[in-house]
Amino acid sequence: MTDLFTEPELLFQHNPEQPFQLPPGLARLRAERPLAPMRFPDGHEGWLATGYDEARTVLGHAAFSNRYELIHIPLPGFSGEMPPAPTGDFLGLDAPEHTRFRRLLAGKFTVRRMRVLTEQVERFTADRLAALAALPRPADLMAAYAQPIPALVICELLGVPATDREWFRQAVNGMLAREGTSADDIMTNWTALNDYLRDLVRAKRAEPTDDVLSELTTSDLTEDELTGVGVFLLGAGLHTTATVLGLSTLALLMNPGQLATLRENPAGAIEELLRYTGIGGATVRVARTDVEIGGELVKAGQTVAISPIAANRDPRRFGDGDALDLGRDASGHLSFAHGVHQCLGQHLARVELRIALPALFERFPSLALAVPVHEVPLRTTANMYELERLPLTWQD
Amino acid sequence: MKVIVDEARCVGGGHCVVTAERVFDQHERDGTVVLLDSTPPEELHEAVHRAAMLCPAAAISVTA
């Protein structure tokens, strides 16, 4: 192996016949040099972490920054510089600016509060199961089930009135890049949503209701910041949960022997599905000072790209990590990252998955993929995987 | 076992509450950790070690 890893595009490759297979090049690299020097698409000489310990250390290390403007991007063909985080997007900030937002939001996303949402998630799930059952087959799980459930939950959190929810759902859908959507369409929908959230912030400030957004209007966040937080929560919570729900369904249909474990221990099973389906192509951090990790010296200013899917399957941490085993203890996986930026909504995502996934297989015991696996339109070229459609069928 | 939490480091990850709810809780205000029992009984030691391992901000430490 050469010293410099020059195939960052491997981070975003997948085999359509075996969508959950880790690119063999990444597995080899992980075995040989779990933190390896890598040439980024813009020419930057940074690093790639494929080992679990190395990835977790970088994500949790105080020497690493997540300020977007300091970071080099490992996406293929990406050579531009990143602008600083837009207002309200605290993921792109470091302490103490990040801490201010994180603390405000963490108080709204405590484990206890997420458990309180369980009943609502159960209600949304029941409604969507009924809607799905009424559709002609094959039906698309993404449009009918996987996307609407997290969208309804976000509406609940933000306090989007029931009368606006259909509009809201369509605007959110229109914001996702997919076949037949132009950049102009996306921008139009983004602006409309942004305007909608700004009006919602004003309305909640004038007349608070029982939701997260109303509560936040009493904080020191400005109207711009609060609008930005709303947009950020949408970006972070919709597409991610929908994709994991879709990919988990696909993974279970490809491993039907595991369904019994999903019924017996949904919490453990969901953890393993989160580990196994991992939807992030690369997470990035930049070193602010020289730092030694796993015997390698990362210099100040160097970007480290982390492959969560490679780290999540590291045999040093998970044994046979390439196998889906719903009975294993998968806790500690990096699908929600690690460190101060670890996903704020992770327990909410767990509630959604724990309810919606078993309910789907219980309602449709004969659920089956309606197309060959290689025809499932999984898009891995963006930094977050996207499952565009999941055509399913079943017997009455 | 003695459990120590560093509230200043805490980012409200909540794993500690999920893993050992008799030992840890979260402040409603900002999600930060509340230590309910700094000397938990032996049957909770494994859960506490697990909570410390899962904590994203390394805000939980344990001494003998």
From TrEMBL, chain A:
Coiled coil: none annotated. Transmembrane segments: none annotated. InterPro entries: Cyt_P450, Cyt_P450_B, Cyt_P450_sf. GO terms for molecular function: heme binding; iron ion binding; monooxygenase activity; oxidoreductase activity, acting on paired donors, with incorporation or reduction of molecular oxygen. Involved in the coupling of aromatic side chains of the heptapeptide of vancomycin. Belongs to the cytochrome P450 family. This is Cytochrome. The lineage of its organism: Bacteria, Bacillati, Actinomycetota, Actinomycetes, Pseudonocardiales.
Automatic annotation (TrEMBL), chain B:
InterPro entries: Fe-S_cluster_ET. This is Ferredoxin. It comes from Amycolatopsis albispora. SUPFAM superfamilies: 4Fe-4S ferredoxins (SSF54862). Keywords: 3Fe-4S, Electron transport, Iron, Iron-sulfur, Metal-binding, Transport. It comes from the Bacteria. PANTHER family: FERREDOXIN. It holds the Pfam family Fer4_13. Its cofactor is [3Fe-4S] cluster. Signal peptide: none annotated. One of its GO terms (molecular function) is metal ion binding.
